[in-house]
Design brief:
alpha+beta; Arc Repressor Mutant, subunit A; 2 domains; three-stranded antiparallel beta sheet; two-stranded antiparallel sheet; 9 helices; 5 strands
């Protein structure tokens, strides 16, 4: 059975063909005794998609995580996508280059913009300022690089800053997986009254927890 086979890394086209058509040629791993598809399987997939955020999930990753076949994982994702395609949901499940992820439906955008226009008058949090500072000084920069510098997850913060038009996508890195690169926007420059990034304060030559506290105080 295909369920008894899996790979310890992301499949390329050849490996996927073997996985689906000739399992005897794929590296065999021990089958979990008494393993059954988890209950509420699609609810579990929802949770996993929420955890991975913008990175998305590949079908083979999901199959291995749930200990199910590639085809069963694919069908579950397709059923979930059909469910969210209905009009009573504000998000949808999309497939971008083999990565499944949740996105906001286009019908929500006018309301999101109205909300963001209201939110623009609110003060940015310290976490938001730290993230903006890292992007401004290091751009273009990936989410993983930002998280390495901050020491905490930044996926949700990046979404908020993008929604407020303070940062934007600036292409993709050549690193494995081609992660998204981020840079600040003209609105960021206007908000902090900067003519160019060279107007940013000089960074101290030492590292400390308080390094970013006064980055935007001029």
């Amino acid at each position: 059975m295909i369920e008894e086979y899996a790979l310890g890394h992301e499949m390329d086209a050849k490996e996927r063909y073997l996985f689906e058509n000739t399992p005897s040629k794929v590296k065999k791993v021990p089958k979990i005794t008494g393993s059954k598809p988890p209950k509420d399987q699609e609810a579990i997939i929802e949770g996993l998609l929420y955890i991975v955020g913008e990175d998305g999930l590949r079908i083979e990753q999901l199959a291995m995580a749930l200990d199910i076949s590639y085809e069963e994982a694919k069908k579950s994702l397709e059923r979930l996508a059909m469910r969210y395609a209905k009009g009573d949901h504000g998000i949808e499940l999309v497939d971008y280059g083999g990565h499944y992820k949740f996105l906001t439906k286009i019908d929500i955008h006018p309301y999101a913009q109205r909300l963001l226009d209201i939110a623009k008058t609110s003060t940015l949090s310290q976490s938001a300022l730290e993230t903006l500072a890292i992007i401004a000084y290091k751009q273009p920069i990936t989410r993983v690089e930002i998280e390495d510098l901050r020491g905490v997850g930044s996926d949700m913060m990046l979404r908020k800053l993008q929604a407020r038009n303070l940062i934007r996508e600036a292409g993709r890195s050549e690193a494995p997986g081609r992660p998204i690169l981020y840079e600040v926007t003209e609105e960021f420059m206007d908000s902090f009254k900067l003519a160019s990034l060279s107007d940013l304060p000089e960074l101290p030559e030492y590292s400390s927890d308080e390094e970013s506290e006064d980055l935007f105080q001029r």
